[in-house]
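User: Can you help me understand a structure? I only have the sequence.
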Amino acid sequence: MFRQIRDDINSVFDRDPAARSALEVLFCYPGLHAVWFHRFAHWLWIHQLYFLGRLMSHLGRFLTGIEIHPGATIGKRFFIDHGMGVVIGETAEIGNDVTLYHGVTLGGVTWDKVKRHPTLEDKVVIGSGAKVLGPFTVGRGAKIGSNSVVVREVPPNATVVGIPGKIVLASEGARDGRPDLEHGKLPDPSATAIACLFDQLKGLEQKYDALHKEHQELKQRFVDANPKS
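Assistant: Let's start by predicting it. Here is the structure, written out as tokens:
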């Protein structure tokens, strides 16, 4: 247990440059507190103490602003940065070294009592405000951009942005060490498409100018050849 607590604290230092001391992390990081509340709530849940598990989860939500259903399965060194507004559903499964930012939802798309929430493999990073909805898998090392809405499976090491989420970077190989947190540098497919349209429009304008110039020259030649017409 103490080894796990130490790993949790170290994971904060690894992924948040604002962390300055173990005391600060221990008392001032709601994402860390939410994970600890969840571990106790999950223990109660798997021992069929459902009401107590939900009560502990509700207490953690009240104190941290992070709602994690006690039935969710969470791996080691899970880090929630800031955390306010994070919602993790009952059948969600989260691997090791996963990072979520504030406002993330791991939600479902059905009312049936089946596996209805996503599975995040190891070292996944999900940007603030993103929604991952459905019982599919987000592959190891994948990265989901801020405010994206993902409703389909994501392959390992892919980068997804947009509504609905689209893969904008394919596999780049395994990522070792700390996760890449620079989700603010993700490409913008909409901006790229608009830029391509502007390029095409510029090309059409150049062709029009050339044709217009050629037409004027032909017209002038006709006038010069037929001065009385």
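Now, to help you interpret it: The longest helix spans residues 189-225. The mean pLDDT is 86. Let me know which part you'd like to focus on.
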